[in-house]
Amino acid sequence: MAADIISVLLADDHAVVRAGYKRYLELDPGIQVIGEAESGEQAYAFLSTRQVDVVVMDLSMPGQGGLESMRHILLRYPAQLVLVFTMHDNPALAVQALRAGARGYLTKSMPPERIVEAIRQVMQGEIPLSDELAAAMAAINHESAPHLQLAPREFEIFRLLANGHSVDEIGQRLHLGVKTVANYQSTIRQKLGVHSAIELHQYAKQHALA
């Protein structure tokens, strides 16, 4: 591969989405998709065998999910550039993704040409965001809502709990012990000021996080 060609790994659990964006990205002669993954775990495994400039990653994938997978990738490969590309346009989720190490956050409702521009921005050290999301994130950075104080792993577990997953299911999904997840659950409830699974779900729905 020529030195000036940007290599990309697409991580999304929908094959049709990957195929469509691969075709679109490769209309640009300066970008080449060299790998695809349908889960964060597959993306991690791919990176153990081949270097890539930018990982374009969805957040809603089976297994560990995007936030936790990104955390694992960046622990192993701290210099890896990860660009989140997701259907979720909630600014609180974008904040958590950037805190976890994402170098940009795009939503699938944006024009497809925006992803090409964003990949180039990430390579130049910029942090691409949609205008609407950037404005919303600037606003919430001045808020003190309890869920904004959660660490990335706490936030991931919070969203799983809010979507009805049990402690056992979360432990299996994230490869954590049941006791560890239960401790996270207690910490999350304390930080959010809720006392039951129902209250936690209601909190998530109120803030469009479930």
Q: Outline, from the CA principal axes?
A: globular
**Rg, Å, rounded:** 17 Å
Order of helices and strands, N to C?
Answer: EHEHEHEHEHHHHHH
Helix content: 40-55%
Relative strand content: 5-15%
Look at the structure and name the CATH superfamily of the largest domain: Response regulator
Extract low-pLDDT stretches: none
* SSE class: alpha/beta
User: How many strand elements?
Assistant: 5
The CATH architecture of the largest domain is 3-Layer(aba) Sandwich
CATH class of the largest domain: Alpha Beta
Biggest sheet, open or closed, and with what strands and sense?
A: 5 strands, parallel
Task: Give structural attributes.
210 residues; alpha/beta; Rossmann fold; Arc Repressor Mutant, subunit A; 2 domains; five-stranded parallel beta sheet; 10 helices; globular
In short:
The protein is of the alpha/beta class.
Report what the structure shows.
Helix 4 (91-99) crosses helix 6, helix 7 (152-162) crosses helix 9 (178-192) and helix 7 crosses helix 10 (197-206). The protein folds into two domains: 6-140, Response regulator (Rossmann fold, 3-Layer(aba) Sandwich); 146-206, Winged helix-like DNA-binding domain superfamily/Winged helix DNA-binding domain (Arc Repressor Mutant, subunit A), CATH 1.10.10.10. Strand 3 (54-57), helix 3 and strand 4 form a beta-alpha-beta unit. The protein contains ten helices and five strands. By secondary structure, it is of the alpha/beta class. The chain has a five-stranded parallel β-sheet with strand order 2-1-3-4-5, with helices on both faces.
